[in-house]
Amino acid sequence: MTIQIFILSKLMEKNTYPYLLKKELSKPIPYDKMSDLTESKLYYHFEKLSKKGFIEIVETIKEEHRPDKQVFKITEQGKQILPDMMYKLFENANEIEEIYVGIAYLKYIDHRKVVNILESKVQDFKYNLDQSKEFLKNYETVSKNEELLNFMWDYFNTKTTHKINFLEKIIEAIKNRDI
Fold first, then answer.
1. Whether 91 contacts 25, CB under 8 Å
2. Contact 90, 102 (CB under 8 A)
3. Residue range 93-126, pLDDT digits in tens
4. Burial environment of residue 131 by CB neighbours within 10 A (0 to 12, 13 to 18, 19 or more)
């Protein structure tokens, strides 16, 4: 879904073709490297979006000794579905990396709704952290398992606390319109 949101968001800005979009992916953030996005995956998602009626071909550029370039635009249906896709992206994300594209294209959605979604996520993460702390307190360990349990707890605690901190920073930045 992230790749499709990226494509639709870029098409909100201008009509383009897959190869050009692939070249632009590394600017300003190397999204192609972070997401392992290949050119074939990009073409696949263009085709998928086209079949759904979210994008359409507006021009075919023919060049001698080169394959034809199909230039796409976003349809009205694509413009209508983009916000829903972005909200789902925020709702379903379990890792910060999963919301990069949503953050990059916040201008196409209601910031307050995103803040509400992210604040709810923060509360869920805090609840899970508290539940895990309680479990750890009440868990009677056998001495050989204690070290492993502590190691696992430390990892979970660090990772979850890190997510909470970053989500809170993102929420504050969205509220302040810094991003």
1. no
2. yes
3. 999 988 988 998 999 999 999 999 999 999 999 9
4. exposed
